[in-house]
Amino acid sequence: MAALSNIEKYEKAMRRVKTVRKFYLGIVRLLIFTILLFFLNDRILQIFIDKGLDNAHILYWVNWTLWSIPVTIAIIYVFKGLWLFFFKKYSTKKWEERQIQKIMKEEDSFEKYK
Questions:
Q1: Secondary structure letter of residue 5 according to DSSP
Q2: How far is Cα 77 from Cα 64, in angstroms, rounded to an integer?
Q3: Which own/partner pairs from 16-25 qualify as long-range (CB within 8 Å, at least 24 positions apart)?
Q4: For residue 40, which of 15, 62, 75, 106 sits 20 to 30 Å off, Cα-Cα?
Q5: What's the chain's Rg over C-alpha atoms?
């Protein structure tokens, strides 16, 4: 397999930087959303109470639902971060490249003995 040119290396690096940037921006958005939810949680629950839904079970369900959103998104970001920073090197694309190089090397060594 031919070595990557400088342009290809630059484009690959730019894609990686954009992916990491999007990941960090997503975390910042999640933090902002969670902080806003923390401060607005009582007001949101008060809206339900004002509408006549003052049943403790319903308010508990609304509160649980409000907090399950950022928790779920945080769990997704944990898995995305693990994939992005730790398991990306074991991706199928890299495996395919290694297999191609291995087969090409075997064919070259076979050609020498013909």
A1: P
A2: 20
A3: 19/84, 20/84, 23/77, 23/80, 23/81, 23/84
A4: 75
A5: 25
Please give the residue that has the higher pLDDT: either 93 or 38: 38
Whole-angstrom distance, CA of residue 27 vs CA of residue 44: 23
Residue 8 has pLDDT above 60, yes or no: yes
How far apart, in Å, are the Cα atoms of 20 and each of 15, 34, 68, 110?
9, 21, 25, 42
Question: Encoding tokens for residue 98?
Answer: 């290694």
DSSP class of 86: I
At what angle are helices 6-50 and 56-82 packed, to 10 degrees? Answer: 170
DSSP at 35: H
Strands, E assignment, the chain: none
pLDDT higher than 70, residue 92: no
Structure tokens at 42: 């009582």
Q: What is the pLDDT of residue 89?
A: 65
Confidence at residue 91, expressed as pLDDT on a 0 to 100 scale: 66
